Automatic annotation (TrEMBL):
Ranges of residues in domain HTH luxR-type: 594-659
Species this chain originates from: Pseudonocardia alni
UniProt region (Disordered), positions on chain: 654-681
Protein name listed in UniProt: Regulatory LuxR family protein
GO-annotated molecular function: DNA binding
Superkingdom classification of source: Bacteria
Length: 681
């Protein structure tokens, strides 16, 4: 096609072929080595030949033909030239990097640095496949010394999940390129701290580096002591993931006094590890754990040493402690630090903690959304914890088929003997089995989960509350003795942990299996304890259970009141399966739900709803009622759910809802009637 064309036309055609279709005329001319006039004449001829269609590359067959005629070597040179031109023009980094990838092995340090930066950015946005490709390509060039070690380290990090053995080999090679023991230790500490997928296989490397530090005579200065402590915490991190290393962890916990660890980031990391393991083994209670977690995180998180895996894992105590006010600020600072240092894994883990918190606090749809967002980023064993949260949310929503599909791709046994977190997957599968009527199978998985956890010394019932499920399943199967024993143990352990909400949740299942007047009294006590707790989903379950038990005992009036309240709580939690049960029990007690989907709106909700029905904006409503726009949004969300409408458009026709108005000067017609929205049955 171009055999008899002038050189300028051929060069421009080749430039057009290697550049993307949207490249402008100036860029094409510079890549072709033509001035603007020659490039314009050549472009006219390429339009005639069909290589160009206006300002864009004509079609793929023409492009392919041009590149094949040019040959592989010439194309690589053209891509290298295109990369230089685009870089000088300030083109996006990824666009420049793509041309360097096509140009063959990098030939100079500038290209190596550019590709390294591009790989780092790809990793930061979670594109490990691209990061790996860029790093592998960069290492094909004449790169040596510390630069090569840095590239190998980054490559090992992005390979950890997909190819752990290869990743370990690259890390070993990187360490061999660093002659100084302290530099090797620092490099390994930072690498393991940011590596996804666990660190079980890296424990020997960590121990080797610690020995090298001792042999080199380091460890007397404050910096060396802190580095050693960070490495020791990483050894514990690796050991705790491996069930065979449990004894080592508990031995360290038993012989370590947190108060004697000294000061500094390394000491704080070790204290966090001690706190985490003490909580897992119930050697400490929730209040102490929450206070010490806050103490172990400094006010200023500029040093990314505080994003150590043990430090971040200790923040997971946030979802086990009922009162989290003291930890909220710590969590926010950690999230900010993770975002600032591009630690998407830490951000995703803390979002996963949010999912578990939201679930226990009765915000089921929000919990599912948070879990899904976290699962998009998390890898390795930590992902199993969030996978369980998503599964439990789906089960509460009645979407068991979707829950089964979510769990189906997960390899059941690949990590069974490599991390205790595998038990989160067991419990998630048990929840799905129980929801689909496979009670005996669900119980078997639940008990296996419990045996595995206890075998590695994890007895805290709120870390993974398999005992609750075991009690309910034993009870459903008529195994009264086993159910009672499990329930009593569950109550005892929850009392040791401390918060009333968890104690109330345990009392609920004990009341279920006790039966009779004693069971009723226990359920009343459970409801009283849960009443002051943020664990709204457990409170909803307990209210429905108590209402059902009262109905069975012939107290129909009390049962109806409880079941209406339980139905309202279940609706507020976004738990349709629980709500359906409450509705069925209420009908059996001779009652029916209040019209509008649940129960009456609260006075605050009614005032907001009336103003919204009249066309007032959230800002107007907030000004009239003297509250925040966020509070208004929360009230409206609950109103829509209770009235079973999709949004503001449905408010005007909602039964019993009188439209209100916002008057000039911040006044509003917001007097709320005391009767319910809709008649009582």
């Amino acid at each position: 096609m171009l055999r008899h064309e002038p050189p300028g036309v051929v060069e421009l055609a080749r430039a057009v072929a290697v550049l993307d279709p949207d490249a402008d005329a100036g860029t094409r001319a510079r890549v072709a080595g033509l001035d603007d006039v020659a490039a314009a004449h050549a472009a006219e001829r390429l339009v005639e030949l069909g290589v160009l269609d206006g300002d864009r590359c004509g079609h793929d067959p023409a492009r392919t033909a041009v590149l094949e005629a040019a040959g592989a070597d010439r194309c690589r040179r053209l891509h290298a030239r295109a990369a230089r031109v685009l870089d000088s023009e300030g083109a996006p980094l990824d666009r420049v990097a793509d041309h360097h990838l096509a140009a063959g092995p990098p030939r100079d340090g500038g290209v190596v640095e550019l590709l390294h930066v591009a790989a780092a950015r790809a990793e930061q946005r979670g594109d490990r496949v691209r990061a790996r490709r860029l790093l592998e390509h960069t290492l094909t060039g004449p790169v040596g010394g510390r630069r090569r070690a840095a590239l190998l380290v980054d490559l090992s990090v992005v390979e950890r999940v997909a190819a752990p053995a290869t990743a370990r080999g690259h890390l070993v090679e990187a360490l061999s390129l660093v002659p100084c023991a302290r530099e090797r230790a620092e490099l390994l500490a930072r690498t393991v701290a940011r590596s996804p997928g666990g660190a079980v296989d890296l424990a020997p490397l960590l121990e080797d580096v610690l020995r090298d530090l001792a042999d080199a005579g380091t460890g007397t200065s404050g910096q060396d002591r802190e580095l050693r402590q960070r490495l020791e915490a990483l050894v514990l991190h690796a050991a705790c993931e491996d069930p065979s290393g449990a004894a080592r962890v508990w031995d360290w916990v038993a012989r370590t006094d947190p108060g004697e660890l000294g000061a500094g980031a390394g000491a704080d990391v070790l204290r966090s590890a001690h706190l985490l393991f003490s909580a897992l083994a119930l050697h400490t209670d929730a209040a102490t754990a929450a206070a010490r977690t806050a103490e172990a995180m400094p006010a200023d998180l500029e040093d990314d040493a505080y994003l150590h895996p043990m430090q971040v894992a200790a923040l997971g105590l946030l979802c086990w402690a009922e009162a989290t006010t003291g930890l909220d600020g710590v969590r926010r600072r950690t999230l900010d630090a993770a975002h600032r240092t591009h630690r998407t894994d830490v951000e995703a883990f803390l979002r996963g903690v949010d999912a578990m918190l939201l679930l226990r606090r009765g915000q089921v749809p929000a919990a599912l959304a948070a879990a899904r967002a976290s699962l998009d980023v998390l890898t390795g064993a930590t992902r199993l914890m969030v996978l369980r949260a998503a599964t439990l949310a789906l089960v509460e929503l009645g979407r068991t088929a979707e829950a089964e599909r979510l769990l189906a791709p997960v390899d059941d046994r690949s990590s069974a003997d490599r991390t205790w977190r595998w038990n989160y997957l067991l419990d998630a599968r048990a929840a799905v089995l129980a929801a689909t009527g496979r009670t005996r199978e669900a119980l078997a998985l639940t008990l296996e989960c419990g045996h595995r956890l206890m075998a590695v010394g994890i007895v805290n019932p709120v870390v993974l509350d398999w005992r609750r499920r075991a009690v309910e399943l034993h009870h459903e199967l008529g195994e009264h003795e086993a159910a009672t024993a499990a329930a009593e143990e569950y109550v005892t352990l929850c009392r040791l942990w401390g918060p009333e909400g968890y104690g109330g949740a345990a009392l609920r299942v004990l009341g279920l299996v006790q039966g009779g007047e004693r069971g009723l009294a226990t359920l009343h006590s459970a409801r009283a304890e849960l009443g002051a707790s943020p664990l709204a989903l457990d409170r909803a379950r307990c209210t429905v259970d108590l209402g059902a038990r009262m109905r069975a005992h012939g107290a129909a009036g009390e049962a109806r009141a409880l079941l209406r309240h339980g139905l309202e709580l279940a609706a507020d939690c976004g738990a349709p399966i629980l709500a359906a049960r409450a509705r069925t029990e209420l009908a059996a007690a001779g009652g029916r739900p209040r019209r509008g989907g649940s129960s009456s709106l609260t006075p605050a909700e009614l005032g907001v709803a009336r103003l919204a029905a009249g066309g007032a904006t959230n800002r107007d409503i907030a000004a009239v009622l003297g509250t925040s726009q966020r509070a208004v949004e929360g009230h409206l969300t609950r109103v829509y759910r209770k009235l079973q409408i999709d949004g503001r458009e449905g408010l005007a026709s909602a039964p019993g809802l009188r439209v209100g108005t916002c008057r000039p000067g911040g006044q509003g017609d917001v007097d709320a009637p005391t009767r319910a929205v809709g008649p009582r049955p």
